[in-house]
Automatic annotation (TrEMBL):
Pfam families: TctC
Protein name: ABC transporter substrate-binding protein
N-terminal signal peptide: 1-27
Alphabetical list of InterPro entries matching this protein: BUG (IPR005064), Bug_dom1 (IPR042100)
Source lineage: Bacteria, Pseudomonadati, Pseudomonadota, Betaproteobacteria, Burkholderiales
Family stated for the protein in its record: Belongs to the UPF0065 (bug) family.
Stored CDD domains: PBP2_Bug_TTT
Keyword annotations from UniProtKB, A to Z: Plasmid, Signal
Length: 322
């Protein structure tokens, strides 16, 4: 009579369970066991795309798996957001986003997602805006405010409820200036008209406008950071000029809600590893940004608070849902 030892019996049972339930075997695999995708809702070459690629490279080192950055532009980033929402909550398909993730539910009748569909892994960077005028425009913020108060000025922005729109309106309202907003399809188009003098000013990121400032085609009147930028120490803050106003735009990573906590922690750890890399920090600072490190829990709290505050902004600026 053949006897089966306890060890052999356990082995046979485990093999049977794995054969009958393949997901059992898969779930036991350490994360990550295959390549990860980060989906970007903009075309290659923009700030979100470039930042994500730089961060993904360093995160890959930490996680020991390739990270592929996949661009899915369209629908004001809604195409990418909806796509990630429809993927499994396993940490293998994550989303790169920015402030627009929070504003779109206030401007679209059917954005196709809610912020509760996602959980924050963490921000990557935050960056302020410059207030910019053409070469022939006012030479100081004080001069601009005086001209704006007299009326008959217009300003450009890259779209209703975009971060530059919100920043510009916040400043103009603080000064009580009535300046006509002119929406464009992207800040690049607005920049062209600012340089040509067709609109009086716009708000833009340092990374995309600094070249024109250095060449003399535009002038920066103020920066929305709390301190002057290391990359542009000659540009004064709004605070220095008497207005207690700061504003920054974050770029961050999100996962589908329901992603296991241990997976979120692994991704958060890899993100922190990337954001503390000396060379990467120097690259961000040269582009007028700074690494922004938050835990998944703290990032979720920030997203919720910012989304709530945007309700008043939407009402004040009379956002109309399309």
């Amino acid at each position: 009579m053949n006897r089966m030892t306890t060890g052999k019996l356990v082995g046979v049972l485990m093999a049977s369970i794995a054969a009958l339930c393949p997901t059992f075997a898969i779930s036991a695999e350490p994360y990550p066991s295959r390549p990860i995708r980060i989906v970007v809702g903009t075309a290659p070459g923009g700030a979100t795309d470039i930042t994500t690629r730089l961060v993904a490279q360093k995160m890959s080192e930490r996680l020991g798996q390739p990270i592929v950055v996949e661009n899915r532009p369209g629908g004001d980033t809604m195409v990418a957001t909806r796509y990630v929402r429809d993927q499994p909550a396993d940490g293998y398909t994550i989303l790169a986003q920015s402030l627009g993730f929070l504003t779109l539910p206030y401007t679209k009748k059917e954005p196709g997602y809610t912020i509760k569909d996602f959980s924050g892994i963490g921000p990557m960077t935050r960056a302020p805006f410059l207030m910019l005028v053409g070469a022939g425009g006012p030479r100081s913020l004080k001069e601009y405010v005086a001209k704006a108060s007299a009326g008959d000025l217009s300003y450009g922005h890259g779209g209703i409820a975009s971060a530059p729109h919100i920043a510009a309106e916040s400043v103009l309202r603080a000064y009580g200036a009535n300046v006509l907003p002119v929406p464009y399809k992207g800040n690049g188009a607005a920049m062209t008209d600012v340089m040509a003098g067709r609109v009086s000013m716009f708000f833009d990121a340092y990374i995309s406008s600094s070249g024109y400032v250095k060449s003399g085609k535009m002038r920066a009147l103020a920066v929305t950071s709390a301190q002057r930028l290391a990359a542009a120490p000659d540009i004064p803050t709004f605070k220095e000029q008497g207005l207690d106003y700061t504003f920054s735009v974050w770029l961050g990573l999100l996962a589908k809600s329901g992603t296991p906590k241990d997976v979120m922690n692994r991704l958060s750890d890899a993100l922190k590893y990337a954001l503390t890399d000396k060379a990467l920090v120097q690259r961000f600072q040269a582009d007028g940004a700074e690494p922004y490190i938050l835990s998944p829990e703290a990032f979720d709290e920030r997203l919720a608070a910012e989304f709530s505050s945007l309700e008043k902004v939407a009402a004040d600026l009379k956002f109309v849902k399309e």
